[in-house]
User: What shape does this take?
Amino acid sequence: MQSKSPLRIAIVGGGIAGVALALDLCRHAHLQVQLFESAAAFGEVGAGVSFGANAVRAIAGLGLGEPYRQIADQTPAPWQDVWFEWRRGVDAGYLSASVAPGVGQSSVHRADFLDALASRLPDGIACFGKRAVQVTQQAERLQIRFSDGTEHECDLLIGADGIKSSIRDHVLQGLGQPPAAPQFSGTCAYRGLIDSEILRGAYRERGLDEHLIDVPQMYLGLDAHILTFPVKHGRLINVVAFTTDRSRPDPQWPADQPWVRQASQAEMLDAFSGWSEAAQVLLECIPTPSLWALHDLAELPGYVHGRVALIGDAAHAMLPHQGAGAGQGLEDAWLLARLLGDPQLLDAEVPLMLAAYDAVRRPRACQVQRTSRQAGELYELRDPATAADQARLGQTLAQRFDWLWNHDLAADLQQARRRLGWLQTA
Ligand code: FAD
Assistant: This one.
């Protein structure tokens, strides 16, 4: 960074994307990083999150490979390369498997992952109880105002404040666009974690195959699907059971209803009545599921306005059907950290650098958003090309994710550097 004083970077939002970015940036002496989180502490829900090969590479590139490996689960041999096995919901009959060589299903408990990241942040970087409510850009300086009346000045602002982002409003307004409200998908998801020994006991009692516990599974049915994968080194099985109401083309979630609530086991079992015993026994082992109303965002016309950029769900919240949302936030963080950490970056070039980030990341993240929605149609037998043809459905699922996992992050960086005329020293 060829300027006298360090570039002052503010990150708003301390979820996976914001903390991962902060961790990488604070290793550079020429950057001064401050992270503002609205909650009183970092926090994640008690559930699993899985990462594709692309996200695992981004994690390693952010310097977090070792802490990640210590807490991550991988499917036991000889199924270590299996991401999910695909089965019919009605009888658990095998359709196919998606295979990601060298990675398979790589998953962690969310809170463990965020703790592992947050515990590595140097003191003084994170400020809590700071809800950003307004941003003003004047010439080359930015002012963030918080709900407690305080303000913070910086040279560059990253909005990592999730699907309900307030920084997004500033960016879209700056681009002359209307605000982008989260949209309800019509899908709700029951979530629970099961002690794997309890599930094993229940499967043995019914004579069910324990392979279905050890290897990640997706059970597919009309307007519903269930996924399972292990977390906490196999001690817990993460279960998500999705149901979709497709009776309305434009489903609306009531504004006065929370997106997450406690559900009863009876209502969950009712939603999956007629499903295979393997699926029913799973759900019988979740006495108190939570129910999540799944929202996503429309593809945004831009992630950047001047010296402000969006990353993670603030930019591209998506449905969880490809297990890719957090991974896209990590790809954002990886690319931005490489560009910001480059000593060639001049303060005056910050808007150009952010424009290069936008040009490279947005088409890919939008494609992941789009295909995540399409994946839900495929899994819930609403895709006209495969719904009535199980062999074709199995083949499609087996290969569907390769483009997502095999993405070349280094080529993205080259493309951004080329836009900035930086290639000669790459
Ligand atoms: P968040 O985690 O939403 O973090 C935003 C942070 O900003 C929060 O800490 C919030 O308190 C703070 N904040 C908000 N507003 C303000 C403000 N104004 N000022 C200051 N701070 C603020 N992704 C995967 O990759 N794999 C999966 O397997 C997967 N499974 C999923 C399953 C389900 C059911 C769901 C719903 C999602 C799943 N996802 C998955 C998606 C993933 O959870 C998200 O993409 C990811 O957590 C988003 O991280 P983030 O840091 O961008 O945002």
